[in-house]
Structures are given as C-alpha cells and as structure tokens.
Write a structure and sequence with these properties.
The complex is a heterodimer of chains A (411) and B (91).
Chain A: E1 3-6, E2 12-13, E3 28-31, H1 34-40, H2 43-47, E4 77-79, H3 81-87, E5 91-96, H4 107-120, E6 125-129, H5 133-145, E7 148-154, H6 159-166, E8 171-175, H7 179-192, E9 196-197, H8 203-208, H9 211-220, E10 228-232, H10 237-251, E11 261-267, H11 272-278, H12 304-313, E12 318-321, H13 323-337, H14 343-357, E13 366-371, H15 379-382, H16 396-410
Parallel strand pairs in A: 5-13, 6-7, 6-9, 7-8, 10-11, 10-13, 11-12
Antiparallel strand pairs in A: 1-2, 1-3, 4-5
Helix pairs in contact in A: 3-13, 4-5, 5-6, 9-10, 10-12, 11-12, 13-14
Chain B: E1 3-6, E2 20-23, H1 28-38, H2 42-46, E3 57-61, E4 64-65, E5 81-86
Parallel strand pairs in B: 1-5
Antiparallel strand pairs in B: 1-2, 3-4, 3-5
Classes of the chains: A alpha/beta (411), B alpha+beta (91).
C-alpha cells in the first residue's frame, strides 16, 4: 500500500480511515506498488500458501499480517455442466460463495480486510450499513476478533438475516426505511462517532476485499481470464473490483491478457444500473427499490458510474429479472447443480439465462457466474413457492400407495 | 424560522468545524450560493462547472433525495433540514 487516491481527481491522501476526497467527494482507492509486489507474488508462492483469499495477501490493503478472517475465501469454482445444458451454453462455471466462511456470503471477503485494517488503525468498535449479508459478516467476524459491533439494517429484512446478526451479540439497529436511508443515517453517524464503519470510512480497504473473488476465479481456471463473467450489482462495487482483480493479475504477469466481458445483473424492482446500461447512458437515475432481492436493493448505487464504465470498456451487457424469474432461477440452480443460492444468486442466474438467450453471451463461449450468498438466509423469498412434503403415517402400505398414486400422476 | 444545513465531515474545514448552518434561501440552488458567500470555496465542492450537483454528492431535504424532488430547484420552507452526504458503498 502506498496511499489513498481519489478516483475522480487523483489527489492523494494518507492511509487512514477516510473514504471521500475533500474536493469532489470522489471515492478514495488504495494505490499499490506493483513493481514491488511482482517480486514476491509468483504463481509458485501463491500455490504454496493456505487455500484462503489471503494467499493473494500482497494485493490486499493491510500493512501487516491479517488478523481477522484468515479462513475466508477460496470457495469452489464449480463446473456447472447440467446448468450449462439448460441455459444452452458450451461451458459454464459457478463461483460458489454460498459456502464462504464463516457467514455464507461473499461479504466475508470484504469484512476480513476491513476488520484487519481497522485493528491496525487502532479501532475497538466496528459498524456497517447493510442489506443483511454485510451485517451478518461484520457481526460474526467482530465476535471472533473480540471487537464491538453495531450493524444498521432496514427493519423489514428477511427474518433469517436479522437472527444471523443477533446471534453473534452484535448491536443490531433496525431502521424504518430502505437501505439508502440506512446509508444516509450511517454517513451521519460515522461522522460523529469514532468507529470503523466498514462501508463508510473504511470503504477504500473494505472494497478491495472483493478482488479476491477475481483472483480465485483466474487461478481456479488455470491462470486464465474467463471470457464472460456475470456479477450481481447492488452498489456496483463488486463488478468494478472483479475487473480490477483481473487487470492486476495481467499486470503482474500471472495471467495473459485476453478478451473478458464483465456483465451486470440486477433485479427489475431495483435496476438503476442495468436500466442505464440498456439505454446506453453513462449515468443512472436513482430509484426506490421494490424487490425480493433485498441484498441488492440499493436505489442510489455509489459505484454505479464506474460499473457502467467497466461494462462499456469490456464490451459487456446488463439486464434485470423480475421476482418470479428470480425464484425460478434459484430453483433451476438448485435442481441442476445442488447449490441453494439466495435471491441475489437467482438474479445472477436469471440474468445469465437472458444474456445467453439474447446472444449477448454467445452460446459457444464460456462464462463464470458469481453466486454470492446462501439461500438458507432468504428462505422467506421462496417460502410457499416450492410445494410441500407429502405426509404419511409410518406405514409401508401408505408409502406404496403414495408411490402408486404419483406413478399415476406422472403417467 | 430559517432552514438548517447539516455539513458533512469532509467539508467542515471550510465551515470552521460548524456542523449546522442556518440559511434563508428559497431553493437548494440558492442555499448553495448562500453557503458560498459565507464559506468561500464550498460551492465548487458541491457543484460542477455547469452548476449541477456533483455525481458523488447526495443532497437531501428532510431525508428525501433532491433527485426525487426538483434537484436544484427544490423549494425550501421554514424549518426544513438539508443534509449533504457523500455516496456510500454497498452492503
């Protein structure tokens, strides 16, 4: 790490807990010394290290060895042949962050970086504004690290996501409003209290954690960039960091440069970025979210401009799917690959289906789908849509009768 | 009764660390001009060369984003509270 730098005007700042440029409010980003990194970060060095996101440690913004979330990452990259067949594409991979450690979403990646850095900077209390997954991850990782935590969420979140924060002993504050309102409040709180707000004053460090997903995809594909990647978009940050991750590996000579399109997926009920992309605009109009994909329900996406830029630069597309299409896609992924994703995963799979059908991802190509969270956390979204178990007495006769009946139904 | 503007941390160097500033302006656009006369330099932080609110700056009147209202033309009435907040990453 060399400094923090404004993405808009290039002004540099010291490596403290600060996130916006004083001059234009542009987001600050960590600057690295790649020539220096190149000396130690070789394929052999990476492959000799434990299978976690920290095997790419030189590219993650901590000054010393990480202290929080050492087991996070290196989730499976699943070759999804059965799903590929259903979607009609030659080759398909699922980057399966539904089994990320410890809280079953990609957010553990960003949180382990943010909390490790927060400790380095001397904080004892961490906080976040969250649509659910981030709150779960901050609560769990803070508990394990012995840090105090405050998590702020919209009060109407899925029940599972609320319990999944409370259980770790975090201070959970439900805000009567949508995420953008939680965010606004947290920006004001962050200015007042001396806490490490992972997605406010710690954002430059936090956001870099997402790059680890890109590094893993490339390594797991045998050190090559995927031709297509489909990424869910809330604030748009993950999509931009996937590109940055790919570019860094090329810059370091760990993967060769090749054409790679990074497509964005949103829910129709909150689609400011995909709407702008489809209209060919380089700016978006904020919306008020209304979708079952609550983890993606950000109406004023902070990295929306940059996500649009990345899609344009990489020749990618964006699309969005309705609540019904999200549920269908969750089921499709589960039935073909045995992976139960949360609503955001349904968004990614549903949009991939559309992009393949429309030829924006050609059928003879290969694609990676980023599935970022576990379905056990959003059971509310599918409850009532999956049918019910048939109940019988513990009797062989009843079971045979049931099979015979089903045989008739199926025939 | 005047209107109150809540100044975010990155801009407080310009307001001698004052967090709440009272203005008498009738619209958001006028409020920014009024702030500029009292705290020179603050205007260019908030709006670009064309006078539009910068893309990483969110302005709220009583908790509503001005992009859902009338942007710079959003009218202000007595007692309104205006917040200026940088855009935040996802969660």
């Amino acid at each position: 790490m060399k400094a923090l730098k404004c993405r808009e005007c290039g002004r540099e700042y010291p490596l403290t807990a600060t996130h916006v440029c004083e001059f234009d409010f542009g987001p600050l980003e960590v600057v690295y010394d790649y020539d220096h990194i190149k000396k130690s970060l070789t394929k052999a060095a990476i492959q000799s290290r434990p299978k976690s996101m920290w095997r790419y440690r030189e590219l993650l913004p901590v000054a010393k060895d990480p202290t929080v979330g050492l087991q996070v990452g290196f989730t499976p990259l699943v070759k999804a042949d059965r799903l590929a067949k259903k979607l009609g594409i030659r080759e398909l991979w699922v980057k399966n962050d539904t089994v990320n450690y410890p809280t079953l979403s990609f957010k553990d990646r960003v949180v382990s970086v943010a909390l490790s850095r927060a400790r380095e900077l001397g904080f004892d209390t961490v906080a976040c504004a969250s649509t659910g997954n981030l709150a779960n991850s901050v609560a769990a990782n803070a508990a394990a690290a012995g840090l105090k935590s405050y998590v702020f969420i919209p009060s109407d979140l899925e029940h599972g996501k609320i319990l999944n924060s409370l259980v770790y002993g975090a201070h959970v504050i439900g805000i009567k409003g949508h995420y953008d309102e939680v965010n606004r409040l947290c920006a004001e709180i962050a200015g007042k209290f001396g806490w490490a707000f992972v997605n406010v004053n710690m954002r430059p460090y936090y956001a870099e954690g997402s790059k680890s997903m890109a590094y893993e995809i490339v390594e797991q594909l045998g050190w090559r960039l995927p031709r297509h990647t489909v990424v869910p978009m809330a604030s748009g940050s993950l999509l931009t960091k996937i590109q940055k991750g790919y570019q860094e590996l090329v810059k370091l000579g760990l993967a060769s440069e090749s054409e790679t399109a990074i497509h964005g997926a949103q829910a129709t009920g909150c689609s400011p970025i995909s709407t702008a992309q489809k209209a060919g605009m380089d700016f978006f109009k904020p919306v008020k979210p209304d979708t079952i994909a609550k983890s993606l329900a950000i109406g004023t996406p902070a990295d929306g401009f940059y996500a649009l830029k990345v899609m344009k630069e990489t020749g990618a597309a964006a699309d969005d799917v309705t609540d019904d299409e999200i549920r269908d896609a969750i089921k499709l992924l589960a039935e073909t690959e045995g992976i139960f994703a949360e609503t955001a995963g349904g968004v990614t799979v549903g949009v991939a289906k559309k992009l393949i059908a429309s030829g924006k991802i050609p059928r003879d190509d290969s694609a990676v789908l980023c599935v970022t969270g576990n379905g056990l956390k959003t059971l509310d979204a599918v409850d009532g849509y999956l049918g019910k178990p048939r109940e019988i007495k513990p009797s062989l006769r009843e079971f045979e009768a049931l099979l015979a009946h089903e045989g008739k139904v199926n025939a | 009764m005047p209107k109150k503007v809540r100044i975010p941390t990155p801009l407080r160097k310009l307001t001698n660390n004052e967090e709440l500033i009272e203005v008498n302006a009738a619209t958001i656009g006028e409020a920014i001009v009024e702030l500029q006369t009292r705290f020179p330099g603050i205007q260019e932080r908030l709006v670009d060369e064309k006078g539009e609110v910068r893309r990483f700056v969110n302005v709220y009147v009583n908790e509503e984003d001005i992009r859902f209202l009338k942007n710079r033309e959003t009218p202000l009435k007595d007692g309104d509270e205006i917040s200026i907040i940088p855009a935040i990453a996802g969660g």
